Amino acid sequence: MKFSLLLFFLVFTLHFATQTPAVELIEDKQPKRWTLYAQNNTDVEQEAFLMVKGEGFRRSADRPIIKKIPPHSKVVMMILIPLKGATPSYTKVFTFEEQLQAIKKRKGEGQKEHVNLLPVDPEQLTLFVEDDCEKCIYLTEYLNSERIKHRALDIKKNSAVFDLMWSHLKDSVSGYELIKLPVIMHKETMYFDIISMEHFIQNFDWEKVE
Prior knowledge:
Glutaredoxin, 2 domains, 4-stranded mixed β-sheet
């Protein structure tokens, strides 16, 4: 009897240990490039999210990327080019639509007391930022110095902030853009790929911000 129970436990554990995830991040590390793929193993389209912070790469400041992954397909999320003589490394945040929906159900979708986050007011200037983002710091310092009313939300300090940002971005991107912070929202318009923050500040109509 004990042997049968032990055998059942081993088979049960092996089954879940080898179970293929719904969406997985595949890392192909070649000498001259590291390619990160999102592979969808389900029968429905998924939206994958990847945020990488790396060192020792030609591009190490990439911001969140959102891409649509067709059923049973593999899509390139990001390519990292190692610098010569460097020891490249990175940390990542990777998730996908099905996983986010499961998290929301556990938290209680639509229940503010679980999320502790007010909805976005379209009339208010809302920023999604990180504390180590130079453009984010530059923009918030300008807004504070000019006493321009705004709301800054750090996507690393609260997972609900990330979910909120993504829920609005899904309607504004085709699925293949590089999303760079800060992400700015005002009057139903999204700004998520600002190359020059100085140029943005000089040309944005700040008088329309209430």
